[in-house]
């Protein structure tokens, strides 16, 4: 990365261009400024087709319009966030904005203006960098520094929505009258422009609606989730092939191997990869990934590729580093597999959302009682939640644009709701015996097992989107042996 990134300039007619402290160039001569204005080819893209999900985003905006008639609705993408000094984190648009537009650029804002028969949508974006005032090469976010942006005309073609300059939006919103709602937490400048026009309660209703709208996926979304899962399957295969290199280094080799697949075939990983070997598998969100990988231990790999449209997989396998489970590892693994089988079988249209969790927890509790690790009867243990010392977490969650999708939905429509065709959720029971847990025999300590798959609710049952990865212990061993040659 060049270390000469300049600060945002003022126009030539205003204050002199501000140079960054310790920059090597003291300024820009009039001759250079004039030279940089001309001699550039026309790069306007005139043969653009709408993005693949344009029909779906239009339908989503229509549903939003119908829910809030007569109100101005403001949905920001968000802004760049500083990582350190003058470098930023990679930008990811808010899920609400991406869901309604398909656009992923920073500073974008979708506005639905009320009309007599619904709403008029406009997408507000940064236009192409200005070549007349030097912005394109002097601004830290100019196109010669960070890449070309779409023109507003191009954006309108791509997203099927009229596009305007976002730099004018805050002023327009300050003058706005009538009821307004905004999705909060993404763009402080837009929120400041609306500060006297919105209420927290009304804005939360908008956020909740957009979260609940994602509970049932459309065909485009299901296709993207399958793409994410298919890439994730290949990422797991990549890891198995290099376990010897991970043994020679650390868990980070596993993390890096999976990340390569995610970046080559998708946008990124959907969440921080959990590459937990040995007793680290008992830490639910172990993302430090700096520990040793040893033959004889288990590797709990919880990872998901995120597609270019932001849909993420979320899959976990617990693999024997040596390629073969020990007797005690197989005992624990097979118990978790049996619990997952019960959980997946409970994923049916019309079933309560909680049913798959209850089914899996019952199996795990039965095993814990059978092994003498907790005193029965099973009903007593479940009533008191005593099994949670070793099962710890819920058995799954909704999946989509967020790894924990639809999180703002009302409890009555999510956790206390009913499964419908088109919902996609994870089923991921686990057993975790901490290395310092003196309530269990020593042979269990340091063993953590989780098996997780992404399940689509269908009209007649369910479909395991991640069935491409084996789950049964003997099948896992055979799969690993085949990959390792």
TrEMBL record:
Residues 52-191 form the Aminopeptidase P N-terminal domain. Residues 1-14 have a biased composition (Acidic residues). Gene3D superfamilies: Creatinase/methionine aminopeptidase superfamily (3.90.230.10), Creatinase/prolidase N-terminal domain (3.40.350.10). One of its GO terms (molecular function) is manganese ion binding. It is an enzyme of class 3 (hydrolase). GO terms for cellular component: cytosol. It holds the Pfam family Peptidase_M24. Keywords: Aminopeptidase, Hydrolase, Manganese, Metal-binding, Protease. It comes from the Bacteria. Residues 1-26 are annotated as: Disordered. The keyword Protease applies. Its EC number is 3.4.11.9. The keyword Ribonucleoprotein does not apply. It catalyses: Release of any N-terminal amino acid, including proline, that is linked to proline, even from a dipeptide or tripeptide. Its cofactor is Mn(2+). Belongs to the peptidase M24B family. This is Xaa-Pro aminopeptidase. It comes from Streptomyces griseoviridis.
